[in-house]
Amino acid sequence: MTIVAIALAVLAAVALALGALYQHDAVADQDNSHNGLSWEHFKELLGNRKWLLGLFILGLGTLGNFLALALAPVMVVQPIGAFSLIVSVLLGVRYRGLKVNRRLVQSVVWCTLGVTVFVALSATTARTQVHLGADAMPLVWITGIIVVIGLVIMIFFKHAPQLVLITAAGLLFACVATNAHLVSVQFLRAGIENVTWQNVVALIAAAALGSWYVQNAYAAGPPEMVIAGLTVVDPIAAVILGSVVLGEAKEAPLWLIIVITITGLVACLGVVVLSRYHPDVRDRENARRDARRTDQLTDTEEC
């Protein structure tokens, strides 16, 4: 079953990269999309064929990932999503004319290697357990806290940097994955009557808010950054939730936990480097600097 789960997770990773490409293009084509995604812009997207195609592909990927989570522990399935970062960069080069530089390659390698080792080590120790009733509630409360924090950021920081947006989205989708795993295991092993519906509600709330963050992240920068955040922050947070809250790493020795932590930090460092040195990010920053210089020169001439 673990092999089937890994295969489904790989297919889901490809779907994530392809769906992100279509949705980013649709969002980026909108006027003033870099200033944030307004409700009016979002309603326009609902009639955009490219955006809807991306949504359909992402839906297929989500279904594949959900089935994978039902067949294997969170610690095994979620980190495989890092494969989509490689696919995303290749698609960017092919369809968006993305310029590949040394920093971009380094960041992708760090992210991919870090999360790959994460998968390999997690698979050796992760064990799925059934959590029923009160045992499932800690995950509900943790998800609720993250959702509330996400709502606060959304309301009071309307033009947050892309790195903040993808970090928030990654944390929210980590909650989605962990709740999905918990609920699917409850259903398969204990029956629908033992499913804790609070976890289902928490899953839906986190998915809805996380999707909003993803769309705003598309408007704030390149799709590779969104993929990097979702495939690094998401699995690392999901593994933490899976090991600490769901007890999937109870049998793991201390040295293994330390190595897993180091590989996670390496992957996170890759995301930070990508957020600073991605060609599209650098181009946007240069454009903003040129605009500021022009404004300053205009002000000086008027004086």
Tell me the layout of helices and strands.
Blueprint lengths: L1 H27 L10 H7 L3 H23 L2 H4 L5 H13 L6 H24 L11 H20 L5 H29 L6 H24 L2 H22 L9 H24 L1 H24 L1
Fill in the keyword field for this structure:
single chain; 303 residues; mainly alpha; 12 helices; 80% helix; Mg_trans_NIPA; membrane; transmembrane helix; Multidrug transporter; transmembrane
Molecular structure report:
This protein has 303 residues and is mainly alpha-helical. The protein has one domain. It is built from 12 helices and no strands. Helix 1 runs antiparallel to helix 3, helix 6 packs parallel to helix 10 and helix 8 crosses helix 10. 48% of the residues are buried.
Could you name the ranges where pLDDT drops below 50 across 5 or more consecutive residues?
none
* Alpha carbon gyration radius: 20 Å
What coarse outline follows from CA principal-axis ratios?
globular
Query: Structural class per helix/strand content?
Result: mainly alpha
Mean pLDDT: 75
Number of helices: 12
Strand content: under 5%
Give the N-terminus to C-terminus distance in angstroms: 73 Å
Number of individual domains: 1
Largest sheet: none
- Extended strand count: 0
What order do the SSEs take from the amino end to the carboxyl end, as H and E? HHHHHHHHHHHH
Helix content: over 70%
